[in-house]
Amino acid sequence: MSTIAQLRDLILKAKHAYYYSAAPIMSDAEYDALEDELRQLAPDDPVLALIGSPVPPNTMLTKARHRLPMGSQSKVNSEAEFRQWALKSGPGGIHASLKGDGASAAAYYLNGRLIQAISRGDGTIGEDITANALRFQGLPAWAGDAQKGFTGAVRFEVILTLAEWTRIDPARSKNPRNVGSGIMGRKNGHQSDALTIFAFDIDESREDGLPVAFRTESDKAKRLEALGFNLIPQQHCATTEEAVAYFNRVADTRHTLPFWIDGVVMKMEELSLQNALGSISGRPRGQVAWKFDSAGIETVVEGVLISGGHTGALIPTAQLRPVEIGGTTVSSASLTNFDEINRLDLAIGDTVWLIKANDIIPKIVRVTQRPARRQPILAPTRCPFCGGHVGRRKTTEGCDGAILVCQNRDCPKKSIGKIKRWITSLDIQGIGDVILEALVEHFELEDAADLYALQDRAVDMAQLVTHPVRGLTLGAKRAASILAAIDAKRSLTLSEFLGSLGLEHLGKRRVEIMMDQADGLLDTLEDWRSGKLRSPDVAEKAGAPHMGAAIQDSIDAIAPVIDKMLANGVDILPPQRDVHASENAPARKTVCISGRLPSGKKKSDYAQALQRAGYELVDNVHQGLDYLVLAEAGSTSQKAVKARQWGVDVISEEDLINKIEDSSSNPAPILPSTAG
Question: Can you give the residue ranges of every domain in the chain?
Fold first, then answer.
């Protein structure tokens, strides 16, 4: 893209992020510099006249009709089937491209500007996802050259790359296709910038309204690349043999790709030949998707174990006779729920066909042999951990779901699971599984609130036996470190507090979203405990119309733990409203901390104190920054030089502490005590 086109694209995306997501992608100064540069190059550019976000967020997920239907392709599953397709299609080159394992969508442009993006849906009617698409990686908000903007449609696959999948879901508990599809359809746009698009087709209109006549698939690809779209990896194959060789290379090396694929799309290179071949049942004869065959192996189910989590879910896992598959030894496979066991008609002793779904997740796909003396796998009627009653988890609509849960709120698996959830969510360092189990057993911890009562038992903690066989104890130094880590998490934001309790449907991010959408109705812990969420109007306003009552039930049920948390000294910080939420909102002064501070504290150690005092901690020096904290007053670092050039107030750590204490109504010591 030209410089002007790039400036338009950046400005449109920055506008959208500022107005729609309330999470600016650049500072005001950086944005102003972009507009100034575009104004110098094109004083009357229409992008400069645009006020507000390029797309109103209230269009998100409304039904939308594709201007050109998004059809699907016929599939082949073997080399023989592909060769038969190639023979029927006639002589000519073949355009081969990776088939991304994601969600298809189309973007529509008018005179360069992205005006609408629609999910595939049924091919004719999809859902408007424009508000999220403007944040996708690889999808320009403005496409074209400096003189003429692109008008037409681009089809693309929305992909969650392996890197982003691992960042969002470190345990990789769900596959990236499902996670990515879920993000794409979120009404609040959360994590949309983690998605990447890979364009694979284009329909372009000329100024007279007639379609641009591309000659080959390669010509389309070159045009997409010139317009600034992220392309799916592809290759031109002169013969069928080359196409087969390409497919085999991809199949052998797909594990090295940065995203999942499930095959290769083969198209006749000449578009005139594709048109001549026509279509059948809406599927073009000149294109075919050659899908990978999941490699599998037989093994025997030797048993089933049930695991329990902090929500009480009882998940069956098949214990398998170990087999080598995909380069690793597999000895277990999750069965998801007991409905899946019934669907497979699975029993202990059965021989099963095992695959690695998408080459990662072991999955039983069918039973291949049922011996005479097979042992049925029965769903538990009592919790195997506490003997409590078992029932089905309710869906957000109030219906019975597929997951079995223990209904005893005092189940030890729930207790230890919820304590572990609290520790993990708040990143309390030093308490691994072994130490947590020892704490629960010896100090009879019932819930996470009991962690905050351990300060009075420091001596006992030092003597805590962590490895009975080896006679190892925790030790005074490690006990003190753990107690300090717990104590550092006494002052929490409301989202940290509620989102770490292990309540169903209520993580930290959902609390933040609901607070933001509720416009002050859910700003305090008292608001969440008041019963407001049982009101359909409040639940709707907070963006949880089908979950309000369930969330309220969960909060009510855990009330004793909440009360104990507060009694044990856990403090809820007051809410901090976004500075862009109102034109009348007072600006928060910004602080950047650079270098190793004299006290030895890190900048993250000051985050909560600065927030309470009304300051905003930022990572970078920029024009408009209020204070730069330096370890050495005479520093000549890049940050220090830039700050002095821009007139930023350069201060010491001692100055920072004074400002925090002057701004706080109840100042507390910032630096650690050096006594004794």
Answer: 1-54, 71-291, 296-370, 412-489, 494-572, 589-663
